[in-house]
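For consistency, the fold was encoded as tokens, which produced the following:
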Amino acid sequence: MARKRIITPEKKELISKLIEEYDIKTAKDLQEALKDLLGDTIQNMLEAELDEHLGYERYEPTEEPKSNYRNGHTSKTLKSSVGPVEIDVPRDRNSEFEPKVIPKHKRDISDIENKIIAMYARGMSTREISEQIQDIYGFEVSAEMVSKITDRILPEIEEWQNRPLDEVYPIIFIDAIHFSVKNDGLVTKKAVYVVLAITTEGLKDVIGIYVGENESSKFWMGVLNDLKNRGVKDILILCADALTGIKDAINAAFPNTEYQRCIVHQIRNTLKYVSDKDRKEFAKDLKRIYTAPNEETGYEQMLEVSEKWDKKYPAAMKSWKTNWDVICPFFKYSKELRKIMYTTNAIESLNSSYRRLNKSRTVFPSDQALMKSIYLATLKITAKWTMRYRDWGMILGQLQIMFEGRI
């Protein structure tokens, strides 16, 4: 359930005073106010640091003679996401004061902003980040300012979403994960579709992220046309679950592409019907199907697994029987290529990262907020994808024979 924002009477009074003080009428007015508040906050912290350094507060009487005094201020302009912030750094007469909040010669406070973005990538809400900054640095950064700082990556996301792609991809996986998003005050479930590709060099790469509500041929045509517009001319094998309309869209956009029911999804959809105590044994039986040497043996194994488990889990093996026609192309590939298609590591590492977002934030305030979090989580996990698949040279040679003239 989404956490309801509670505006206390004290907050209302503070907001009213801010609006009155700064005459806030536009977003630009708000930005100027934020700059001023940030500057005042840092200024107060610097003054408090000097008090501690000197051992007494301004105008505080002392019994013993003072060995050091305040000695005016030095103007300084800081660089931040809300624009330049003017502050006056206090000085001491002995020139011994070394500020910790804003060290000498430092003018860019974007390291704090980068930490804010890193926390956002871990799925923390703007409110939680605001509280964390308060705990770590001792000053308050409003949730609105956190949102503005993370908006800094929006042009980067747009550039990433529109970057040129390879002309040919041997294998592409399409997977989905669902999130709750608030729109116009209503919370709805939205699917994020992730397009994971295997390149001709044998490397994994996320080449697209799409937020959608309803699957349809029209939706998938938009996704596939986006890939084409970014330079993709051919896909050898496209693996996906039973996504509504995707088969027709593939036939229209990439008529030579082989649509393969994703074995990863097939396994996952089967095991969701199985209790924890039987899952390990059931998974072991399923492996006999997709590791069979040929389609005939695989079909026989499927019937045996069904006979063994149908009485206890009647719904589990149903999809294997009804969708065998889009599962069976898998058996014509070599065991090395099959392993890439049924090994769950790449997809599961992505899903694991995305699920952590769901645990941290039960509801995203907007599609944009969801996209920012998904993008940052994707960058974090894909940065570890530096190794190509084992035996890729041999696999590429097999693909060149099976898909002659296309790779």
In short: The longest strand covers residues 168-183. DSSP finds 17 helices and seven strands in the chain. The chain has a mean pLDDT of 82.
